[in-house]
C-alpha cells in the first residue's frame, strides 16, 4: 500500500494513534495546533510546510512566498483563539537561487509576522532542489479560553467569517491562465491571504466553542469538526456567504460555484460554532473590527454533515483538498 492509496488524513490519524499524549498536553495531534499547559496558561504550537512547486503558482513573488508562509501558521493559532508570540522557519533553497530573491522572501516574512504582533526568532537553512519553507508558530491562550475542533455542542450556531471561494477561484485563474482583469481581488486572496487572528481571540472571549480555519475547503472542514465533536451539522446552502466575484467568475466561465466555495480551500476564514445565546454578541464583536460573520447552520445530535438545498436535505460530500490524493 502506498501513501497515495490512503491520503493525508489517514496518515495524520496514524500519527495520532501512535504518539502518546503527555500529562501537560491539553490538545495533541489532530487539531489546528497543540496546547501545552505551562504554569496555568496554554502554550499553543503549530507547524506548516510549503513547497514551491506544490503551493505557489507560477509568478508568485518572493515577498508573497514569505507572506504566505507566515499566514498558514498564524491561521492555525487563530483557529485556537491564541495570541501569537513568535515563529521559526526551516528553509530549503536551491544553490543557484538569487540572493536578492531570498532577501525579499525574508522581508515578506518579517513584515507579515510583525503585522500580527509576532516575530520570526530563528530557524534553519538547508540545500534543496525546490524552495521549501517549514514554519512553526507559537502563541498563548488562557485556561478556559481555547477553541478546539471537538468543542461543538447540540444547539450551537455554525458560522463563518468573511466570504468564501475567492482563493480557490484565484488559483483557477492563475493555473488556467484565464483573463484576470476584474478579478484581481480573487488572485490577491490566493497569493496574499490574511489570518483571522484578532477574530479568533474575540471568538473565544465571546462564547465560541469550536473552530477551524478553512484551508481544505468548507465541506472537508465541516466534516472534521463534526467528527471530532461527535455531532451532526445541518447547513443551509442559501446562507453560505460566497464572494460575489466568485459567482460572477463561475457564471462567466461555466464553472460550478460550489466547487470554489465548498471544496476549493485556502480561504483562511474561520469556521466556528457558538452557543445560540452568544451568537449576536459574537457577531457584534466581529463587526466592531470590521469583520462580517454569517450563521450558516446549526449543530444537533447525531453524526455527519448535511446541507439543505431548496428545502431538500442531503449529505454534504466529504471532499476537499488533501495531500497525496
List keywords for this structure.
325 residues; alpha+beta; 60s Ribosomal Protein L30, Chain: A; Phosphoribosyl-aminoimidazole Synthetase, Chain A, domain 2; 7-stranded mixed sheet; 6-stranded mixed sheet; 11 helices; 27% strand
Describe this structure in words.
Helix content is 37%, strand content 27%. The chain has 11 helices and 13 strands. It folds into 2 domains: 3-142, 2-Layer Sandwich (60s Ribosomal Protein L30, Chain: A), CATH 3.30.1330.10; 157-315, Alpha-Beta Complex (Phosphoribosyl-aminoimidazole Synthetase, Chain A, domain 2). The chain starts with a helix and ends in a 10-residue tail after the last strand. The relative contact order is 0.16. Strands 8-10-7-11-9-12-13 form a 7-stranded mixed β-sheet, with helices on both faces. The chain has a 6-stranded mixed β-sheet with strand order 1-2-3-6-4-5. The radius of gyration is 19 Å and the shape is globular. The chain has 325 residues and is α+β, with helices and mostly antiparallel strands.
Amino acid at each position: 500500500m502506498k501513501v497515495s492509496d490512503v491520503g493525508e488524513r489517514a496518515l495524520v490519524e496514524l500519527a495520532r494513534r501512535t504518539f502518546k499524549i503527555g500529562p501537560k498536553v491539553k490538545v495533541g495531534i489532530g487539531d489546528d495546533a497543540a496546547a501545552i499547559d505551562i504554569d496555568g496558561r496554554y502554550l499553543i504550537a503549530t507547524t506548516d510546510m510549503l513547497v514551491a512547486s506544490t503551493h505557489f503558482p507560477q509568478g508568485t513573488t518572493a515577498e508573497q512566498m514569505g507572506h504566505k508562509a507566515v499566514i498558514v501558521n498564524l491561521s492555525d493559532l487563530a483557529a485556537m483563539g491564541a495570541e501569537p508570540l513568535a515563529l521559526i522557519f526551516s528553509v530549503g533553497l536551491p544553490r543557484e537561487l538569487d540572493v536578492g530573491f531570498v532577501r525579499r522572501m525574508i522581508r515578506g516574512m518579517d513584515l507579515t509576522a510583525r503585522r500580527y504582533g509576532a516575530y520570526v526568532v530563528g530557524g534553519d537553512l538547508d540545500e534543496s532542489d525546490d524552495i521549501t519553507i517549514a514554519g512553526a508558530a507559537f502563541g498563548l491562550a488562557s485556561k478556559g479560553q481555547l477553541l478546539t475542533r471537538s468543542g461543538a455542542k447540540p444547539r450551537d450556531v455554525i458560522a463563518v467569517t468573511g466570504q468564501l471561494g475567492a482563493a480557490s477561484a484565484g488559483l483557477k485563474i492563475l493555473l488556467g491562465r484565464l483573463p484576470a482583469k476584474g478579478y484581481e481581488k480573487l488572485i490577491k486572496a490566493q497569493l496574499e491571504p490574511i489570518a483571522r487572528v484578532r477574530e479568533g481571540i474575540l471568538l473565544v472571549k465571546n462564547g465560541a466553542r469550536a473552530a477551524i480555519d478553512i484551508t481544505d475547503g468548507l465541506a472537508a472542514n465541516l466534516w472534521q469538526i463534526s467528527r471530532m465533536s461527535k455531532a451532526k451539522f445541518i447547513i443551509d446552502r442559501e446562507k453560505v456567504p460566497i464572494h460575489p466575484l466568485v459567482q460572477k467568475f463561475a457564471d462567466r466561465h461555466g464553472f460550478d460555484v460550489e466547487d470554489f466555495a465548498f471544496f476549493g480551500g485556502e480561504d483562511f476564514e474561520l469556521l466556528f460554532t457558538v452557543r445560540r445565546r452568544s451568537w449576536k454578541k459574537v457577531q457584534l464583536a466581529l463587526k466592531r473590527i470590521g469583520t462580517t460573520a454569517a450563521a450558516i447552520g446549526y449543530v444537533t445530535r447525531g453524526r455527519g454533515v448535511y446541507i439543505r438545498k431548496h428545502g431538500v436535505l442531503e449529505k454534504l460530500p466529504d471532499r476537499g483538498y488533501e495531500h497525496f490524493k
